[in-house]
Amino acid sequence: MEVKEYKSFKGMHKELFDDLIPVSMASSRRGVTTYTIYQTIERGRLSSYIVEGRQYVRRSEIENFEPQAPGPKKKNKKNKKDE
Q1: H/E run at residue 26
Q2: 3-59 adopts what CATH topology?
Q3: Whose CA is closest to 56, among 66, 67, 65, 46?
Q4: How far apart are CA 13 and CA 36, in angstroms?
Q5: Mean pLDDT, residues 68-76
Q6: What is the pLDDT of residues 22-53, one digit of tens each?
Q7: What residues contact 27, with CB distance under 8 A and at least 6 apart?
Q8: From start to end of the chain, where are the E strands?
Q9: Distance between CA 14 and CA 27 in Å, rounded?
Q10: pTM (2 d.p.)
Q11: Per DSSP, what are the bridge partners of residue 21?
Q12: Residues 54, 5: contact at Cβ < 8 Å?
């Protein structure tokens, strides 16, 4: 996912405009800190939009977001075939 920057809301598609919420509201809806939302954006798991110097995320992405289990990711083990 990526961060897109706009100078203002003018000229933005209405669908996108209606779906954007501030990071603070997104954190409240998910019951997490704003830091967690920013980390999720940084890791590429959420798209974000900077408009007039303020960062927003899509409401639809926040509502449909599936958190990952905490801790290190499990590595896939390949079965070795006997030669």
Answers
A1: helix 23-30
A2: Arc Repressor Mutant, subunit A (1.10.10)
A3: 46
A4: 28
A5: 70
A6: 999 999 999 999 999 999 999 899 999 988 88
A7: 33, 34, 36, 37
A8: 3-6, 20-22, 48-51, 54-58
A9: 23
A10: 0.70
A11: 57
A12: no
* Cα separation, 78 vs 64, whole angstroms: 32
Match 């896939």 to its residue by tokens. 76
d(CA 12, CA 6): 8
How far apart are the C-alpha atoms of 75 and 50, rounded to whole Å? Answer: 35
Measured between alpha carbons, how far is 53 from 9 in angstroms, rounded to an integer?
A: 11
* Residue 15: both structure tokens together: 């669908």
Computed over every residue of the chain, the mean pLDDT equals 83
Q: CB-based contacts of 9: which residues, under 8 Å, 6+ apart? A: 17, 51, 52
